[in-house]
Each structure stands twice: as structure tokens, then as C-alpha cells.
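Example 3.2
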Amino acid sequence: MREQMTLPQHMIRSANMGEFNDKVYETVRRVPRGKVVSYGQVARLIGQPRKARFVGYAMHGNPDPWDCAAQTGIPCHRVVFKDGSLGRVLHLAGLTNNGQGLPRRA
């Protein structure tokens, strides 16, 4: 099991992370319904290929969580680990399939 790392809010929302986080949120907003993207893929899409962990920190500090009814917000549930498994926060929310990752489509 992965150990959960908790960062102080001032590190998540610091000024130097603001632009990075904004790029992450904008990229994640563009992930289509029914599709997922890995933290590493998001990092590469914003031009920071070695910053997958920081993408995770940005997702943890999501300022606009997804609203299913209104279909608005940042759909952080569409960001997964490279093996398709879900992050700890989603496991705690009950959005898990027993560690099997997401099903692969043929």
C-alpha cells in the first residue's frame, strides 16, 4: 500500500505553483468523459515531463471538485496512476475495484 503524503496548504497553493497548477487543471478539464489520463501524461502535456508527483499534489489541492449533477469542475477522478489504479483519495471515497486498476478496452 502506498503511504499517503500530506503537504501543507501553503505548499500546494504557493505562488510558484499557481501557474503550474493552473496548467494542470486546464489539461485535466479537457479529458473527455469516459477517458482517463495518468499523472505522467498530464505532466508531459503541460511540458513538465518529470513532474508527475506535482500533478498529484495539484489534484490533491483541487479548488473546484467535479460536480456530477452540473457536469462542471475539475474531473480529478479521470487522473490515475500509470498502471490504471486509483489514488488513495479515490479509494477512500469508495471508487475502487479492489486494486485491479481500470479495465482495458480491446
